[in-house]
Amino acid sequence: MSASSKKILVEKLADKYKLFCIIMGSLAACTIAVMILSITFDATSRYLFNNPIPGVFELNEVLLVICVYMGLAWTQIERGHIRVTAILIRVKPSTRAKLNILAWGLTFCFVYLLAHQSSIGAFESFKIREFRWGSVQMPIWWAKALVPIGCIMLNTQLILDIWKEIEYLRGRLPEQNY
Known about the structure:
By secondary structure, this protein is mainly alpha-helical. It has 5 helices and 2 strands, in the order ααααββα.
């Protein structure tokens, strides 16, 4: 088997992790559909029967956490986060790889801090079994736990992306397509 057709460890790990992230991203996408339907039914019920559906607002608050944080890593895989490529398209591929490593390293640091702080808040919320007051009492401790989980998922993807760029610079991988 030639060296170019043999997958190295980072590619194997990235492929397996991508499948997990696609599943989580699909779950995030499904929450959008649930949010749309619940708001549509609530607005229709409110307009036609002057009777809103209790708990729709509270439900959508926690679904929004799933939507945002479970889709972060998948969005990184698809390069869907906002990037300014004006400089990247004008530099050599090796410089582009180095700039990606720098940007993703800084992002990793920021997301790590976010994960750390949000995990403290999630743990406190779990300890007191926090819930939100509204037309219905909605437990929110589990939704708060999804914030650090989503951040950890994103950081895992960032590590894989940095690793791939390093392997490219070492000549073990072809240039990444962005």
